[in-house]
């Protein structure tokens, strides 16, 4: 029976005196990244003499996160250095490095990594090099077939990367439209409290818990605020009995939600589908006073602008705990352009979002196709 040790050999190499290779970090989801890119600064100590060299196409894993798939191949620099805690490996002669790297990240092997992890703390379970190299493999094809499979998967993955890049550009497009329309020309500035009322949410009553499944009473948490919208995929729900106890703390279409604890300053406009939902105590709702001064989706976007986020950060800094007080939200100074201009932005943003939604669906379909392609490839059916 073939094992991972038949494809990889461990090695340990330290940087030469005076060498200054790029410091890399090994992540669960994105493989190797430059440490400076991930943390905006170099975290490694000044003395990196005991760090390990990892050259292009060489492989390493994080022994404390291998169970989560933290194994990667260096494809970003010709020579880097990583923490001495990470075991490093070279691909043995007679095997294709790209094929091996993809094989190590198949769902089947990641499941096997979980089986060799040991320790009592779930997020810190450790895996040994010995157990890793002794994991069995089946149906490892000859080198020409490995190269063919790797080329097909690399090509398919490149197409997925282009789609993700297009999505990133679409996300940036809405920001660019907003900046073009509202930051180049001055507009009257008002205190948010002059045009809206700020109301808090409510925690679950003592001893209460969420409903087991969906009900007619959604409960919006800060974790549901992502990408400038309320994401409905993981909403919690309340039983009618629990909802009656906090029935006053609901949201309506046209309100804007802003997080006031934890990840402070996240915003989203409330869609019609969530009118009547309950709101967490870690967020507040911004309710229009007359319904004419602003559009909710426009205000949610304005509150994400740099000037408003700077104001929000300053308001949090004035209190002793990490929470944004409701009266300080009222003090936020908001530029207020004509409603017709707000409507134009909302219309343009909606057109971009329609294109983005199609692109997301196509990206999800490509991900499913790639997973199927990869599964067939490593079963010898490609």
Automatic annotation (TrEMBL):
InterPro entries for this protein: Restrct_endonuc_typeI_TRD, Restrct_endonuc_typeI_TRD_sf, Type-I_RS_S_subunit
GO terms, biological process: DNA restriction-modification system
Keywords: DNA-binding, Restriction system
Residues of the Type I restriction modification DNA specificity domain: 189-354
Gene Ontology molecular function terms on file: DNA binding
Similarity field: Belongs to the type-I restriction system S methylase family.
Protein name: Type I restriction modification DNA specificity domain-containing protein
């Amino acid at each position: 029976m073939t094992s991972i040790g038949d494809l990889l050999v461990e090695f340990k190499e330290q940087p030469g005196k005076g060498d200054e290779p790029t410091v890399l970090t090994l992540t669960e989801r994105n493989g190797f990244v430059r440490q400076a890119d991930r943390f905006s600064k170099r975290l490694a100590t000044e003395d990196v003499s005991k760090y390990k060299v990892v050259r292009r196409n060489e492989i390493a894993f994080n022994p404390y996160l291998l169970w989560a798939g933290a194994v990667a191949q260096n494809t970003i620099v010709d020579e880097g250095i990583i923490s001495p805690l990470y075991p490093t490996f070279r691909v043995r002669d007679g095997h294709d490095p790209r094929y091996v790297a993809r094989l190590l990240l198949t769902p089947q092997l990641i499941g096997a990594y979980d089986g060799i992890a040991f320790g009592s703390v779930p997020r810190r379970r450790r895996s040994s090099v010995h157990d890793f190299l002794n994991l069995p493999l089946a149906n490892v094809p000859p080198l020409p077939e490995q190269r063919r499979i790797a080329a097909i998967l690399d090509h398919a993955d490149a197409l997925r990367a282009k789609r993700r890049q297009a999505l990133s550009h679409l996300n940036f497009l809405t920001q660019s439209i907003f900046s073009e329309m509202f930051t180049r020309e001055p507009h009257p500035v008002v205190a948010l409290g002059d045009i809206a009322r700020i109301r808090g949410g409510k925690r679950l009553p003592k001893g209460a818990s969420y409903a087991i499944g969906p009900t007619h009473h959604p409960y919006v948490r800060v974790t549901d605020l992502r990408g400038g919208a309320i994401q409905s995929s993981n909403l919690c729900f309340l039983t009618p009995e629990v909802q009656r106890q906090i029935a006053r703390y609901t949201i309506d279409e046209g309100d804007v939600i802003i997080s006031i604890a934890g990840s402070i300053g996240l915003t989203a406009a409330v869609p019609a589908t969530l009118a009547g939902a309950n709101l967490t105590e870690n967020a507040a709702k911004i309710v229009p006073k007359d319904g004419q001064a602003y559009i909710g989706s426009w205000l949610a976007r304005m509150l994400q602008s740099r000037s408003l986020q700077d104001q929000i950060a300053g308001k949090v800094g004035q209190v002793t705990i990490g929470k944004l007080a409701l009266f300080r939200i009222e003090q936020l100074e908001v530029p207020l352009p004509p409603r017709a201009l707000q409507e134009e932005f909302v219309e343009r943003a909606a057109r971009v979002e329609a294109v983005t939604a199609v692109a997301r669906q196509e990206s999800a379909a490509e991900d499913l196709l790639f997973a199927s392609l990869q599964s067939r490839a490593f079963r010898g059916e490609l």
